[in-house]
Amino acid sequence: MDKMQEIVALQKKFFQTNATKEVNFRIAQLKKLESLLRENEDFLHEAIYKDFKKSAFENYTTEISLLYHDIKEAVKKISKWSKKKRVRTNLVNLPAKSYIIPEPLGVSLIIGAWNYPYQLSIAPAIAAIAAGNTVILKPSELPINTSKAMAKLINENFDPNFFRVVEGGVPETTALLNQDFDKIFFTGSVSVGKIVYQAAAKNLIPVTLELGGKSPAIITENCDLKITVKRLIWGKFLNAGQTCIAPDYVVVHKSVKNKFLELAKKEIEESKFLVEEDNYVQIINDANVARLIALIDADKVYTGGKYNTDTRIIEPTILTDVTFEDNVMKDEIFGPILPVIEYEDLDAIIAKIKEMPKPLSCYVFTKDKEYKQKVLNQISFGGGAVNDTVMHISNSNMGFGGVGDSGIGAYHGEYGFKAFSHYKGILDKPTWIEPNLKYYPHTKSKLKWIKRLIG
């Protein structure tokens, strides 16, 4: 038995003890995790700063605070989420009771992403633990210091048969995907998501895929342009654009395009991304720096466009006069480059967006209810916002997930609990009565009564 097989086998053995099915056990483990995070905040801040200069401010607001929220919500609501739920019994089965029992799937594999390495690794683990599963967590190897930090905190403080971090790159991930898990949860690119899905299919393993895509922001002629720009620039250049739900590109009505560009440039300047210390993060590695630089068409730069390959910094950059045929519009940008496309007819631009793969997010900025409903009803996407960007992820009452190329399944709050659970339907019948209609021998009289009852 190789290392990965042994790790999974030991977790399967532990799961079969039924320890994780006890609600008090789950709550205790989550509280322990929260304490570890709080006691080691500075350690976590230092690790992520070493990886790509993410400040304590951004690390807390965009990662750690969300984990605290998830833990507190789960601890408060696990008992409710875990209860069996009575449902109506249909006429054919009366007299009887019917109910649904949530049960954990078993041993779960969680493969995290590099752009928000704590949040996108630990948040799914919180959901898995809340639902009563054991967890093998494989963080992204790109931010090596955060990977090591999570491995240290979790592996030194939790029973590895219950919760374990496995570090490594492609070989380790491939070895894990060859194992027979009860659930796989992956966050990352569409291309790798397809590999994960294919690997899971071999053993019919249920999966949740949190992917990405080119998320549009539609700016109509009657929006509040000032607040639109403020919210959009923040959402786009947060984490230097390395956010799966960042506005990937903007389509702006011709009548307000020039004013939008002026305000956007001013907002970038006032945000002082590159002036204030720790106000902007690095691109994760040299390969991504080179990829992003290749997308900057110097002839279309409205503002920004400069970069430093030594420090892995690319200025917040706006490209104008962009078309859907440009290179920057072929794949998700995942960096601080914002293409701006002009439009005149909303119906035509909606039709163009619908020709593309379904995005993870979509944003519409407008005061017009008809425009809003048209965008929300006609464009298929994972989730989004009206007159805002990114912040929908902070509401755990809404499931977060993609559709089509942008993902399969959802999580956050109870949606995360459901992602790692099976809902077992039970019909509970008494024995003091037993109608004879369904039993042999079949007769015309019985069929007549069955038709009366069923219709």
UniProtKB/TrEMBL annotation:
List of catalytic residues: E210
The superkingdom of the source organism is Bacteria
InterPro entries under this entry?
A: Ald_DH/histidinol_DH, Ald_DH_C, Ald_DH_CS_CYS, Ald_DH_CS_GLU, Ald_DH_N, Aldehyde_DH_dom, Aldehyde_DH_NAD(P)
Pfam families xref list: Aldedh
Specify whether Signal is a keyword of the entry: no
Q: Which UniProt keywords apply?
A: Oxidoreductase
Q: What is this protein called?
A: Aldehyde dehydrogenase
